[in-house]
Specification:
15 strands; about 50% helix; alpha+beta; two-stranded antiparallel sheet; Arc Repressor Mutant, subunit A; 4 domains; about 500 residues; globular; 21 helices
Length: about 500
């Protein structure tokens, strides 16, 4: 079963079954009838029955006495929330109403009640679509089972309430429950489920990831991703390790937008961003930085210099004219931008009366050639984007560790092959004869399952893999992924 990344903007695993039409049919406007009952004295403090506008379950409601009317809804699935009248008039995303249900339930469990308007509903859904994943649903389901409720004498059965796990319906919740049992996160006994130690650990870790993701969403740190750009600063901060040479530039990167003065101390006074479309644009940006002798690089230019080189370094690039630069750039940008380039041109006899002309320098920098010294697998933009989408930290494939690559390859295989809870059957012989088939792919996934889980036995199993063995399975996995992707394209063209 695919455990997708916590942050993504795709549909969930559930079947819609024309759910949108059904939900929209329920979204009639109950306000007039409620007001009428209120005027007749029939409402008063008592509740009236209605279908929950979000999930369709039997619910009760009361009309608020406020100037701006709203209905207070009490639903066993969504628990408690308030609906403003414009929701019924303007709500047009019935397909994702179940995400509102999940949010209503969890805010109420955190002792907060939502007032849902058309505008707030849109905001909630947009946020939830970025967080949505099977991992997240499973984490919330386990968390609920981990809460002992004395009124139910132990572990409560939640299969009746899809909102506990942000699921669309009971079927989706049942699927998530089965996956949790299969992975050893839940165990069933006497018709009740109980979380295991590994399940509680998994739930805790996933909900911590969600908290981090929420901060990024609220702060807009995922904006570059939404626009399809590479955020080089985020790439550096997400990947640089203390043991790396490049770690010495971390303070420059972290504090690039900050200034210090004697009156206010440290303040964020700049809003520099470091986004590029692709590697080619990053290289061109680097050349521009080196065009003129700039003895006084400002903070922004200095940061660009190191961020571009780090990105190229992690992707295995080397600058032919200066083979050591990408691996070990100087701690002072002046040493390269001014001294090294100038010294090289003088040594090549390009000076005139002791000076190096701007045109000569510009031509030389323009000829800079970056080539990859390490093996690099060109996934193509579509597959690279898919890897980033399913990654738990929005990482590019090339920047992942070996273990992470193996886990995400298996995840992507399932992402490509699994549609509507069923696995697609592809004609692999159309491309690769008998060298690849369903059985081989199934065996590949089984062997690498240990890289997807953090249980003790999985960690022990990983330790049996040498780096050479991991590299083989990475290379072979890329062959599988590319083949599946190509066959899906062929099938789509035939339709």
């Amino acid at each position: 079963m695919l455990l997708r990344a916590p942050i993504q903007t795709v549909k969930t695993f559930g079947r819609y079954k024309k759910a949108g039409e059904h939900i929209m049919a329920r979204l009639h406007n109950p306000f007039p009838s409620i007001r009428e009952q209120s005027r007749k004295g029939q409402l008063q403090k008592s509740n009236i029955s209605l279908s929950c506008p979000l999930c369709g379950r039997k619910a009760t409601a009361t009309l608020s006495p406020h100037t701006i009317p709203f209905i207070a809804v009490y639903c066993p699935n969504c628990i408690k929330y308030a609906v403003q009248e414009d929701l019924f008039q303007k709500f047009d995303d019935a397909e994702h109403a179940y995400l509102l249900s999940g949010e209503m339930r969890h805010t109420q469990e955190n002792m907060t009640t939502h007032l849902v308007s058309a505008e707030s509903a849109k905001e909630i859904i947009n946020k939830q679509l970025q967080l949505e994943s099977e991992n997240r649903s499973m984490a919330y389901l386990i968390w609920h089972y981990d809460q002992k409720e004395s009124d139910r004498n132990g572990w409560r059965e939640y299969i009746e309430y899809p909102a506990v796990a942000y699921c669309k319906d009971k079927e989706d919740l049942r699927n998530i429950t089965e996956i949790a049992v299969e992975l050893g996160y839940l165990e069933k006994g006497d018709e009740r489920y109980k979380p295991t130690v590994s399940g509680v650990t998994f739930s805790s870790e996933e909900r911590k990831r969600e908290s981090t993701a929420l901060v990024d969403i609220i702060s807009g740190k995922n904006s570059a991703r939404q626009r399809g750009l590479l955020d080089l600063r985020k790439f550096y901060l997400d990947n640089v390790e203390q043991s790396e040479y490049y770690y010495r530039f971390r303070d420059v990167v972290v504090h690039v937008n900050e200034t210090r003065n004697v009156f206010c101390g440290i303040q964020e006074t700049y809003d520099y961003t470091f986004e590029v479309f692709d590697t080619e644009e990053a290289i061109e940006k680097f050349k521009i930085l080196c065009m003129s002798e700039n003895e006084n690089y400002d903070k922004e230019a200095q940061c660009w210099f190191y961020l571009i080189l780090y990105y190229l370094y992690k992707h295995g690039y080397v600058l032919e004219q200066f083979p050591k630069l990408v691996e070990r750039p100087p701690e002072d940008t002046y040493d390269f931008v001014n001294r090294e380039i100038r010294t090289r041109l003088i040594a090549d006899g390009k000076e005139s009366n002791g000076t190096v002309g701007y045109a000569i320098r510009r031509a030389f920098v323009g000829s800079f050639t970056f080539k990859q010294k390490n093996q690099y697998i060109d996934l193509g933009k579509d597959l690279e984007a898919k890897f980033r989408r399913i990654s738990t930290r929005d990482a590019e494939f090339q920047a992942m560790s070996r273990d992470e690559k193996l886990a995400e390859i298996v995840n992507l295989i399932e992402n490509l092959l699994k549609k509507d809870d069923k696995y697609l059957k592809l004609n692999y012989s159309e491309i690769c004869e008998a060298f690849l088939n369903d059985d081989i792919i199934k065996k590949y996934k089984k062997i690498l399952q240990c890289f997807r889980h953090s249980a003790e036995h999985s960690i022990e199993e990983r330790s049996t893999f040498t780096d050479d063995k991991k590299d083989f399975f990475i290379d072979f996995g890329i062959v599988i992924v590319k083949t599946i992707h190509k066959l899906l394209e062929i099938n789509h063209q035939k339709e």
